[in-house]
C-alpha cells in the first residue's frame, strides 16, 4: 500500500512542478505582455483527485496485468490518455498542467505552442505547434499541429476552468487520436445579427504507443489516422450558440501480435447547442462516429446534456450522458453501451481559479463492459 501511494504522488509531482513553473514564468512575463510585447505566455493547471465507491464492476475487467495492474471496480475518465479511477484515491487519471507560448512576428504572422504534462504520461506532450497567417480581418490560415476539432471543447478540453464539469464527458470525448498534423483555413464574420466562425481542415496523426488501446490490451498498439478531412461551422446569436462538424479519415491500427490490427473508414458528425441566460445555462452535444471495417460496420452515437445555475461564486450543474454502439454483425463485433448521470458543484475562488466537487453514477447498459460504478472527484483549476 505504501508503494502504491508513493507511485501516486510521483505521478502528480510533475504536474505540480509544471504548474508552479508556469505560474513563475507567466508572472515574470506579465509586464512584457502588458507592454504589447510580441511574446505572450499563459498557462493552466488542474489537480484532480478521485476514486470509485459502492461499485460492482466485474473484477476481471481488464484483468490484473493491464493498465499498471489497476484492480477493478474502476471507471475510465479519459479514454485518450487512459485515465482510470479505481477504489484507491488517485491524482493520476486527470491531473494536468500546460504552458502556451505565442509569438507575433508581424501584424499577420504568428506562432503558437502548447505543452501539457499529465499524471498518466511520463513526459510532456506537444498539443499545439502551429503557425498562423491572418490574410485580413476575416480569413486566417494555420499550418502545424493542432487538436482535431471534432467536439465543441476540443481546442481547450485540457483547461478545466473553461467548463462546469471536472472533465469533459468521456462518453463523447477521447478517441485514440485527438491531435493532427496538417493545415486549416478559417473564416469569421457577421451576418443578420449573428456571428459565425467556419473552417476546413486536413492532415494526419500517428500515435506510436496508444494509451487508448492499453485499455484493451497490454501490447503497444500503433494508430494511424490518415487522410483526415473535415469542416466545422459555429454560429452565435444572443444566448444561443450552435456548432456543427463533419470529419472523415482512414484509421489503421497495428500491434506486435496482430491482435489489435484493423483498418476502417471513419465518418463522424457532431452537433452542439448551448444556451446561456447569464444565470441559467444549458449545454448539449450529440455525435455519431461510424467505422466501416469492410466485413462489418460499427456506429457509435453519443450525447451529453446538462443544466446549471450561477449563484454568485457557486455553480451547481447536473448532467446526463450516454454512449451506444450498434453493429451490422453481432458475431464479428459485440457492441457496448453505457450511460452516466453526474452532479457538479463549482466554486470560483477568483477570476482565475475554481474548486469543483463531482459525483458520478456510471451504468453499463449492455453488461458486457463490466457493470456499474459510483465515482467521487475533487479538483482545483487554475489559469496563469
Write up what this structure looks like:
The chain has a single domain, classed as Porin, CATH 2.40.160.10. The chain is 10% helix and 54% strand. A 16-stranded antiparallel beta barrel has the order 1-4-5-6-7-8-9-10-11-12-13-14-15-17-18-19. The longest helix is centred in the first third of the chain and has 33 residues. It is globular and about 60 Å long. It has 384 residues and is mainly beta.
Comma- or semicolon-separated keywords:
384 residues; mainly beta; Porin; 16-stranded antiparallel barrel; two-stranded antiparallel sheet; 2 helices; 10% helix; globular
Question: What's the gist of this structure?
Answer:
By secondary structure, this protein is mainly beta. Helices cover 10% and strands 54% of the residues.
Amino acid at each position: 500500500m505504501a508503494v502504491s501511494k508513493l507511485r501516486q504522488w510521483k505521478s502528480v509531482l510533475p504536474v505540480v512542478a509544471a504548474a508552479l513553473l508556469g505560474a513563475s514564468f507567466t508572472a515574470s512575463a506579465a509586464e512584457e505582455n502588458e507592454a504589447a510585447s510580441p511574446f505572450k505566455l499563459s498557462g493552466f493547471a488542474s489537480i484532480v483527485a478521485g476514486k470509485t465507491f459502492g461499485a460492482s464492476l466485474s473484477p476481471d475487467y481488464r484483468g490484473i496485468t493491464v493498465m499498471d495492474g489497476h484492480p477493478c471496480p474502476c471507471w475510465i475518465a479519459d479514454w485518450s490518455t487512459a485515465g482510470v479511477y479505481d477504489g484507491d484515491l488517485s491524482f493520476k487519471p486527470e491531473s494536468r498542467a500546460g504552458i502556451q507560448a505565442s509569438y507575433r512576428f508581424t501584424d499577420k504572422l504568428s506562432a503558437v505552442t502548447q505543452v501539457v504534462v499529465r499524471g498518466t504520461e511520463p513526459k510532456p506532450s506537444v498539443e499545439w505547434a502551429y503557425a498562423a497567417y491572418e490574410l485580413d480581418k476575416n480569413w486566417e490560415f494555420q499550418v502545424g499541429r493542432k487538436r482535431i476539432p471534432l467536439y465543441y471543447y476540443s481546442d481547450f478540453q485540457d483547461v478545466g476552468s473553461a467548463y462546469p464539469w471536472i472533465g469533459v464527458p468521456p462518453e463523447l470525448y477521447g478517441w485514440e487520436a485527438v491531435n493532427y498534423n496538417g493545415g486549416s483555413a478559417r473564416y469569421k464574420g457577421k451576418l443578420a445579427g449573428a456571428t459565425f466562425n467556419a473552417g476546413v481542415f486536413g492532415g494526419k496523426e500517428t500515435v506510436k504507443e496508444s494509451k487508448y488501446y492499453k485499455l484493451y490490451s497490454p501490447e503497444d498498439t500503433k494508430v494511424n489516422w490518415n487522410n483526415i478531412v473535415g469542416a466545422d461551422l459555429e454560429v452565435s446569436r444572443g444566448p444561443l450558440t450552435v456548432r456543427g462538424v463533419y470529419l472523415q479519415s482512414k484509421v489503421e491500427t497495428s500491434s506486435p501480435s496482430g491482435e489489435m490490427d484493423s483498418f476502417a473508414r471513419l465518418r463522424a458528425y457532431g452537433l452542439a447547442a448551448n444556451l446561456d441566460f447569464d444565470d441559467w445555462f444549458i449545454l448539449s452535444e450529440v455525435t455519431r462516429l461510424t467505422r466501416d471495417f469492410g466485413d462489418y460496420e460499427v456506429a457509435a452515437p453519443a450525447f451529453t446534456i446538462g443544466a446549471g445555475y450561477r449563484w454568485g461564486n457557486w455553480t451547481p450543474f447536473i448532467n446526463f450522458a450516454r454512449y451506444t454502439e450498434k453493429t451490422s454483425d453481432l458475431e464479428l463485433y459485440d457492441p457496448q453501451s453505457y450511460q452516466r448521470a453526474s452532479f457538479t458543484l463549482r466554486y470560483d475562488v477568483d477570476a482565475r481559479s475554481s474548486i469543483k466537487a463531482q459525483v458520478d453514477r456510471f451504468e453499463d447498459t449492455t453488461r458486457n463492459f463490466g457493470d456499474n460504478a459510483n465515482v467521487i472527484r475533487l479538483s482545483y483549476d487554475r489559469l496563469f
